[in-house]
Amino acid sequence: MNDTEFHQLVDNQMQMIEESIDNSGADIDYEMSGNVMTLEFADRSQIIINRQEPMHEIWLASKSGGFHFRLIQDKWICSKTGVELFEMVKEECEKHASEEIEWP
């Protein structure tokens, strides 16, 4: 994949995360600044998601640690856990919010 394709795929993933947060009704604020998406919770904890263009990866940092995701068969998969990015975002949001979230 070239850089343009990488950015389009990451943009699509970030948009899906934003829309899912909006539709969940959860108390999660998010902000995009350049290549970084910051999710902030009521207790001021954060999840940081950013694109790593040189490696064509998405990185996620949260209370649970740091994770790197590579595109494998059209899914962003964690190199450490094998979990898909969107699933990990949902799990980490519930940990940070200290409650179950109704994801669409």
Task: Describe this entry's structure for a reader.
By secondary structure, the protein is α+β, with helices and mostly antiparallel strands. The chain has one domain (3-97): Frataxin/CyaY (Metal Transport, Frataxin, Chain A). The chain has two helices and six strands; from the N terminus they run αββββββα. The protein has helices at 3-24, 85-97, and strands at residues 28-33, 36-41, 46-52, 57-62, 65-72, 75-78. A six-stranded antiparallel sheet has the order 1-2-3-4-5-6, with helices on one face. β1 and β2 form a beta hairpin. The protein is globular, with a radius of gyration of 13 Å. The relative contact order is 0.18.
Instruction: Give the overall silhouette.
Output: globular
CATH homologous superfamily assignment: Frataxin/CyaY
Please estimate the helix content.
25-40%
Biggest sheet layout: 6 strands, antiparallel
Topology (SSEs and partners):
Layout: H1 3-24, E1 28-33, E2 36-41, E3 46-52, E4 57-62, E5 65-72, E6 75-78, H2 85-97
Antiparallel strand pairs: 1-2, 2-3, 3-4, 4-5, 5-6
